[in-house]
Amino acid sequence: MDLNLRGRRALITGSSKGIGAATAEALAEEGCDLHLAARNESALDDLSRRLRAAHSVDVSVHPVDLRRPEDLERLAGDVPDLDILVNNAGDIPGGSLDIIDGKAWRHGWDLKVFGYVDLTRLVYARMKARGRGVIINNIGNAGERVDSNYIAGSSGNAALMAFTRALGGRSLHDGIRVVGVNPGPVATERILTLLEKRSGEKNAYADLMAGYPLGRAADPREIADLIAFLASDRSAYTSGAVFTVDGGMSAAGA
Hints:
The protein is an alpha/beta fold. It contains ten helices and seven strands.
């Protein structure tokens, strides 16, 4: 399906790997010119070279730490004419209330929660001045299927779900759509690390996958393709909504 995205400009945070890198690939295939932001400059450089060669799109790399207000301001200033923002960066730690201390909690939220909110604030103002834009928040189904052993993440994701719905409920008045995606387990390096830390067992991933729909986690590209569709005009009447992609786990109450 041609999503008519050719020539549009998209910024993807946390785009050096996982869902962020898959989203960059999906949007590049549709002809988007890309701004890739993450802390790992070498990984961004490798991805940008591959996307330029494969899809003949413009790709700019922005090595930034989105926990730092000055990096947020610089990034927003470097990409003033965005059509699409994909908030994706995040590394909220797993653990229960007695394990995740205040410092770790705030460190995680500074990137995933306040990083999304603050970058959205900066980008939204520029999009509003132009009268158009799409903001997509990649959140996570832990905000729906709350987990005491991922309490900082569940709480942060629930906050971002509310943020997305509150902002997206009125944003079309400014010509802007704001939507969210709640992936369930996705086959990334991060989920393997979280599961092993939670259980203390190196085979935790394989054991858990056996009980998941289709016996597997989602592929990052399955999330990225939805993000690309939501970014397109084929989803032009969609705002203030959060879409869950977890194989039916949330619906089943599993």
